[in-house]
Each structure stands twice: as C-alpha cells, then as structure tokens.
UniProtKB/TrEMBL annotation, chain A:
<comment type="subunit">
    <text>Homodimers and heterodimers.</text>
</comment>
<protein>
    <recommendedName>
        <fullName>Auxin-responsive protein</fullName>
    </recommendedName>
</protein>
<keyword id="KW-0678">Repressor</keyword>
<dbReference type="InterPro" id="IPR053793">
    <property type="entry name" value="PB1-like"/>
</dbReference>
<comment type="similarity">
    <text>Belongs to the Aux/IAA family.</text>
</comment>
<feature type="domain" description="PB1">
    <location>
        <begin position="98"/>
        <end position="199"/>
    </location>
</feature>
<dbReference type="InterPro" id="IPR033389">
    <property type="entry name" value="AUX/IAA_dom"/>
</dbReference>
<dbReference type="GO" id="GO:0009734">
    <property type="term" value="P:auxin-activated signaling pathway"/>
</dbReference>
<comment type="function">
    <text>Aux/IAA proteins are short-lived transcriptional factors that function as repressors of early auxin response genes at low auxin concentrations.</text>
</comment>
<dbReference type="InterPro" id="IPR003311">
    <property type="entry name" value="AUX_IAA"/>
</dbReference>
<keyword id="KW-0927">Auxin signaling pathway</keyword>
<dbReference type="GO" id="GO:0006355">
    <property type="term" value="P:regulation of DNA-templated transcription"/>
</dbReference>
<keyword id="KW-0539">Nucleus</keyword>
<dbReference type="GO" id="GO:0005634">
    <property type="term" value="C:nucleus"/>
</dbReference>
<keyword id="KW-0804">Transcription</keyword>
<keyword id="KW-0805">Transcription regulation</keyword>
<dbReference type="Pfam" id="PF02309">
    <property type="entry name" value="AUX_IAA"/>
</dbReference>
C-alpha cells in the first residue's frame, strides 16, 4: 500500500509554511493529465509499473531512483509545459491511455468521439452525450430541431423509456447492444462505437443483450 | 508563433471608470453647431488612431470626444471576457471590424482549471451577430468555442475575413467545415494550439472548389486528424495569395515537397511531420535517397521568400539539412517539436545569421546553445523547452547555455528557458549583457533549487534582472527564493505588468513587496507559495487596476477573500478547487482564488463548484 501512496498526486504546500511533505498525500482527482501519473510510475519500485518491462529497464528505473535526491511527489501542472507539447514531443503519442469511441446519432450532422475513460458511470456519459448533441443548430432541418429539444430536456438514459431514440453500442464481437445493460467497466472494455439510434430500429436489441449476459 | 506576445494590457471597452466625462466649456460661448463641427473633424482624425492606450485617453476628454472615439474605434480588445458584458461593448462601439477576446486564465494551460470553468464564446457571437454585421476579424485566446458558434460566424458576417483561434477548445472539424465552406471572403484561418475534436469530417475539401480562394494564411498544425491530401494540394494550387501555410503532422515530407513546389511564394511554412510516411521508411531507405534529398533541397531553394519556418513534428533528422537554402533569410525558426542534438543542429544554425526568433528543445544541449550564440547575433526571442518535462530528469541545458546566449545575443528581448539547475552568476551576466530584455521567464524545473554552485538562493540573479533590464515588463521566477528576491522586484520592477510565481517565497512580506512596489502590475499568477490573507490585503489599492489575480495552493483563507470582496464591490472574487470538487477549499485554505474587476457584476455562467464571494 505504501507504493500506492507514492503514486498519488499531491498539491502540498511548500516546506516553509509549516506543512511538510509527510502530510497525507491526497489524490487530486482526474484532470485528464494521466501522463503525469504515468510518468510518476517510473519513479517508484519497478513492480508498480503496469507495462511489462525487461530486466534491463527495471534496473535503470531503480538506479535512477536511487541516484537522484528523494523524488518529490509529482505535482499537477508542473513544470508549466502545455499538455499539447508533452504529448507530441519525441514522436510519442500517449493515446494508449484514452479509450476513444465514435459516437453517431441518427440524423445528426456531426460525428463525435468520446474518451470513455473520462467517465465513471452511465450517468456521466449520458450527461456528456446530451451536451454534445445538444449543441447542433436548430437550423433548416426541423427534425434536427426536435432532436435538440429532446436532448435538452431529458437525460439520454431516460430515452430508453421513450420510443424515440435509444443509445446503443457495438461491442467487441460486432454485436449491437443496448447501453446500460452491463456493469460500467465491462461496457468500457467492450464498447467499440456508440450509436444513438431511432427507437424503431432498436427493437431487436434487448433479447440479445440479455442472452449475452446469461452466457458470459 | 503568437504565444503570449506582451501586448498593451490597458483595458479599453470595459473600463467604466474611464467613461466618466468632464463637462466641456463650450456652453460659455455661442458658436453655431460647435459640437458637430468638432465631432466631424475629430472623427476624421481619430480614424487614424490605432493605439488602444491613446484611444482610451481620447475617450476621457469629454462627452463629445467619447462619442467620436466610440464611433471610430474599429478594433476592440477585451483582455478578460468576464470584465464586461457583450452588450455593453456593442452598445458603446457601433462600427467594429475586428474583435479580440481572451478568456481562461493562463494556468488553465497546465491543468489547474477544470474543463467547464467558462469563457464561452457563444454569448459574444450571438450579440455580435446582430450588432456587427460588418465584422471581419475574430481573434480568440483560451475561449470555449462550439461548432455552433463557428456556424454563427459563417452565417452572420458576410464580409468575414480572418479567424484566429489560440488555445481554444470545444469545436471540431465539423465546425471548421462550415467556416471554410460558407465564409466566402476568408483570407486567414489560423488554428494555434487548439484542441480540435476529430469528427471525421473532411473539412479541407469544403473550401469552394473550382474557383481561386482569397486565402493568405492557413494554419492547422494543431489539428490531430488526417487531412485529405488531394484536396489540400488542389487548394494550394488555387490559392494564389497564400503566403502562410502551416501543416499538421499527418503531412509527410514527400507531400510537403509536392505542396511547396506549387507555392514558391510562401513566406511562412509549417512543415508538418518532416519525415517519410512509415511504410516508406522501411522499404525505400536505400533507394533514391540521394535523388530525393537533392529534390528537397532544390524545392526549398525555390522558395526564396520563406522567412519563418516551423513544424518538424516528427522529424527524421537526416532531412534537416534540406532547409539550408532558406536559412540565410530566416527570421524565425521553430524547432520546438524536433528532437535533435547539437551535431544535427549546427550545420543548419550556422547559416541563420538573420534569425530573430528561435524556439527549440533542450535536446540540443548547452553545446547547441553555444552554436546559436555564435551565429545568431540578431536574436530577439529565444524559447528552450524541455523534452522531458519531469523533475529530476537529466536536462542537458543549464547556466552554461544561458551564459553563451547572453554573450552572443546582445539584442535579446525575450527569453523562456527551462532547465534543472542555474546559477546566479549566469542570470546576472544575462542581465548585464542583454539590457534590452522585456520578457524574462526562467523555469528551474527542480523546485526550490538554489544556485547549484554556491548553494545560495536565486535572489541575486532575479534581482539583477529587474535592476538592470530597465524595459522589463514580464517576469517569471523559479528556484529557491526568499523575501529578498521579492523586495528587489517590488523596488525595481516598476514596469513589470505580468508576474508569475511558483513554489517560491518565504512569507507574506514577499507578496506585499510586489503589490506595493509594482505599480504597473496587471496580471499576477501565483501558485504553491506561502502568501496569505494579510499579503492579499495589502493589494487593495491596486486590484481595480489589474486584469486579474490568480493564487492557487497558497495560504489565503475564505474569510480573507471575503474581506477583499467586501471592500471592493466591483471585484469579482472566484474561489474554486482546481479539481472541480465543490467547496473551494482544501483544508484551511482556499485552493484557487481568481479575481478580476468587472463592470457587469459576477458572471451568470459559473459552474456549480465555483463560489463567487
């Protein structure tokens, strides 16, 4: 558990203020700076690192840790380098952390992408989707306008109860399932893309979803 | 590269205190229609007045001059989008061609502000859509812009010409598609360090086809999605006025070549990835390498006009020498995404005699900086970014590189320098060798680090900077600093408008020195420093003159902030937690304090976790 503590982010005050580095470290919560956490893992015992590494790199990590003065807890936003730069420099792209899926809505002019790792529950996802698809112009297409109204007034999940629009997703096996049937984490792991479809198209989905749950 | 140019920070449109008018003495005489004649004359003169500061002064003379100035102001600059409501701006300035608005505080760039904090462009664009039918230019920094907003721009301003978005987010390629297809007069589209969502819309193909465009500048190097190269090539071919083209990393060097041979008139070029596409790297490494190199070299040689070069997003360093033909004319070179070492830099930099702006990664080491100092005698701006932005990393630039730059580049005006260790001696030397410094930003990544040779705090170094660089307006400090450093800044930093402090200082007196001494201070951003309520209180006389104050992870309490808010009713005092959790406090202290004066009271769009005191 000690190892875990060392990976937590800390916004502790500097030493002179009476607080010291031994103050209970707190998790500051996700800000999308998963890179910071990722980098931090390199400073602690090698067995904390989630990626499989060779013995050589493990040794390097330990050596680095021992040589340099006691590593200060990594702090959010320090050093002040924009995230954009951190991601792109050296050709490394840290996209392996994100869980991007496409979201389409029947009749909507725009396709979106969401990072499922940014949400912790169906409710959060539903809020985010509602916001996203809410912002379409109520322009020439009257049908779009109606959809926008729907998005504004009700949660996406509530639409399950209405016959109008239904959120569905394509899973690893290529099957289209109803959103909300499986535990959140299972959904995140298996979802390949999202589609908010018209209710009439979704009728065939429910039984198969239940079958899958029974079989898994 | 327009990041953080030190602009005139005087407020304008929103300055209600400037709106008070003095009665003219015209009522003492009787001259037929005196005001009208005067106003007409004045308007004709004022049209030529561009400087914001001068315009503000003009508007204070009397009501008549206030009106004339408002009537003739065509460029409006809003330094803080919450300082004034959109309607107040559109009601005062009726004939506006160009609008510049800045939103989020700068520390948002480093993750210290939750995503949905605010700075929405929507209320601005919907107000302007009605009031400013002749609007031609919109320039936004750190604003939330939606695809809908972009659609409003495209459909509300028939003569719209220039869209510049810096550090913005909230929109995607869908919105871009609407802008490029419907803004028929578009001349400038610059997307700089924005977060553009990939809606899988082929926006490049949405420019009107089969007719020449008016495009003079197209910048999309921050767009992280593939581009339809065929459309892009055709677009460049039918854009005879195109001078500035900045590509994203999805454009390979072979594609770059095809573009620049079609556009030899380019003056500003962002090269894209500057490497071959991956398949080619494996297959054709040996084949035709010589031929290809000479092709690239001659392509660049044909672009006689290039003065500004950037990009190199995924550079294959062996291709770098291809740019040598244009080096002699280069005034600006941005290699800050290029992981190259000193040996790879030297053959190129030694030709860059005219270079004035240079952005680079610390991978070039002190040795690379020495080469820069040896050649670039005209250098005005240098930025050295860390390739590995973690503490205790091996950062290969240090006081040695800084000294070399100060010795070689005497005309230096602006520097941003990341390092792990520094000495007072090197900073003092720079203060003496480069007296023209206007911007000095030193970031010693290893926090609380003293002079690594003497073990002293970095007080004397920064003290020398404020003392010797008499034109200094922007300063960022780092390393181990005591109250003494701040006493120097307060004593000598009379022109300083922007000050950034992080993990520095000993006690409240440090901040008191600043607030009492820096009479021109406009923007103050402090994080993780031991400044508390009594220090904050000492700035009461000055807060109305500032654009904003930011203090995060310091020692101010809710009560202290409330006291300030009570004393200064026009000041909006926001308290929130950087992680978006309710409450605003972390332990006994406020997590983040962000305050700014506003003519129109607290904003209505604050999210639930922001407390406005």
């Amino acid at each position: 558990m000690m190892h875990l503590k060392e990976t937590e982010l800390c916004l502790g005050l500097p030493g002179g203020g009476g607080h010291n580095q031994e103050e209970p470290l707190k998790i500051t919560g996700k800000r999308g700076f998963s890179e910071t956490t990722h980098l931090k893992l390199n400073f602690v015992q090698p067995n904390e690192s989630s990626s499989s590494s060779s013995d050589v790199s493990k040794d390097t990590t330990t050596t680095l840790y021992v040589k340099s003065p006691p590593a200060k807890a990594q702090v959010v936003g320090w050093p002040p380098v924009r995230n954009h730069r951190k991601n792109v420099i050296g050709g490394k792209r840290k996209t392996e952390e994100a869980r991007l899926v496409k979201v389409s809505m029947d009749g909507a002019p725009y396709l979106r992408k969401v990072d499922l790792k940014m949400y912790k529950s169906y409710q959060q996802l539903s809020d985010a989707l509602a916001n996203m698809f809410c912002s379409f112009t109520t322009g020439n297409d009257g049908r779009q306008g109606m959809m926008t109204e729907l998005m504004k007034e009700s949660r996406l999940m509530d639409l399950l109860n209405s016959s109008e629009y239904v959120p569905s997703y394509e899973d690893k096996d290529g099957d289209w399932m109803l959103v909300g049937d499986v535990p959140w984490q299972m959904f995140v792991d298996s979802c390949k893309r999202l589609r908010i479809m018209k209710g009439s198209d979704a009728i065939g989905l429910a039984p198969r979803a239940m079958e899958k749950c029974r079989n898994s | 590269m327009t990041d953080d140019r030190s602009e005139m920070s005087e407020d304008d449109a929103g300055d209600g205190t400037a709106a008070r008018s003095r009665n003219s003495a015209a009522g003492d005489y009787f001259i037929p229609y005196p005001d009208q004649v005067l106003e007409n004359v004045l308007e004709n003169v004022l049209v030529f007045l561009k400087s914001r500061r001068d315009r503000n002064a003009v508007s204070l003379v009397c009501k008549s001059w206030y009106r004339a100035e408002a009537y003739t102001r065509s460029d409006v600059f809003i330094g803080n989008c919450y300082a004034v409501a959109p309607r107040r701006v559109t009601q005062r300035f009726r004939r506006v061609r160009s609008v510049t608005i800045k939103g989020r505080p700068r520390f948002a760039d480093f993750g210290l502000v939750p995503r949905d904090w605010g700075a929405h462009f929507s209320p601005w664009v919907s107000t302007m859509a009605i009031a400013y039918r002749s609007l031609e230019k919109i320039h936004l920094k750190r604003m939330s812009v939606t695809d809908d907003d972009l659609a409003v721009i495209a459909h509300s301003f028939p003569t719209f010409k220039e869209l510049i978005l810096v550090c913005c987010e909230g929109f995607g390629t869908s919105g871009l598609a609407v802008v490029v297809s419907d803004c028929r007069r578009l001349r400038v589209l610059e997307l700089i360090e924005d977060d553009v969502s990939d809606d899988e819309v082929d926006w490049i193909s949405c420019f009107p086809v089969d007719i020449p465009t008016n495009l003079e500048s197209l910048t999309f190097d921050c767009v992280e999605s593939p581009i339809n190269f065929d459309s892009l090539e055709k677009l460049v071919a039918r854009s005879p006025f195109l001078k500035k083209l900045r590509l994203n990393r999805y454009i390979s060097i072979a594609q770059l070549y095809r573009l620049i041979i079609r556009a030899p008139q380019l003056t500003h070029l962002g090269t894209g990835s500057f490497s071959p596409p991956e398949q080619q790297q494996q297959q054709q490494q040996q084949q035709n390498d010589n031929n290809r190199d000479s092709d690239f070299v001659s392509a660049f040689a044909a672009c006689r006009g290039i003065v500004c070069l950037s990009g190199f997003r995924e550079i294959s360093p062996e291709y770098l020498p291809a740019i040598v033909p244009v080096c002699a004319n280069l005034t600006s070179l941005n290699l800050s995404y290029a992981n190259i070492d000193a040996e790879q830099l030297k053959p190129v930099i030694r030709h860059c005699h005219k270079l004035q702006v240079f952005w680079v990664l610390d991978s070039i080491c002190d040795e690379g900086l020495q080469a820069v100092g040896a050649t670039c005698k005209d250098l005005r701006e240098l930025r050295v970014f860390p390739i590995d932005a973690t503490e205790n990393a091996e950062v290969p630039v240090s006081d040695v590189g800084l000294l070399a730059i100060s010795l070689g580049c005497r005309k230096l005006r602006s520097i941003l320098y990341f390092c792990q260790q520094m000495t007072n001696a090197a900073v003092i030397a720079m203060s003496k060798n480069c007296p023209d410094l206007v911007v000095f930003r030193l970031c010693i990544i290893d926090r609380y680090r003293p002079d690594h040779v003497t073990g002293e705090p970095m007080d004397e170094g920064f003290g020398a900077i404020v003392k010797n660089c008499k034109k200094l307006t922007r300063l960022a400090v780092s390393g181990l600093l005591t109250d003494r450093a701040f006493s120097y800044i307060g004593q000598y930093g009379k022109l300083v408008r922007t000050l950034s402090v992080a993990f520095n200082g000993e006690s409240d007196i440090g901040l008191k020195y600043i607030l009492e001494g820096c009479t021109n201070l406009q923007k103050l951003e402090i994080r993780d420093s031991p400044f508390g309520d009594s220090a904050l209180w000492s700035g009461l006389h000055h807060f109305y003159n500032m654009r904003f104050v930011w203090m995060s992870s310091c020692r101010v309490t809710r009560q202290g902030c409330t006291n300030v808010a009570r004393q200064l009713p026009r000041l909006v005092v926001e308290v929130f937690r950087g992680d978006g959790v309710e409450g605003g406090e972390r332990g006994d202290f406020v997590d983040t304090l962000y305050m700014y004066r506003s003519l129109d009271g607290p904003r209505a769009d604050a999210p639930h976790y922001v407390n406005i005191l």
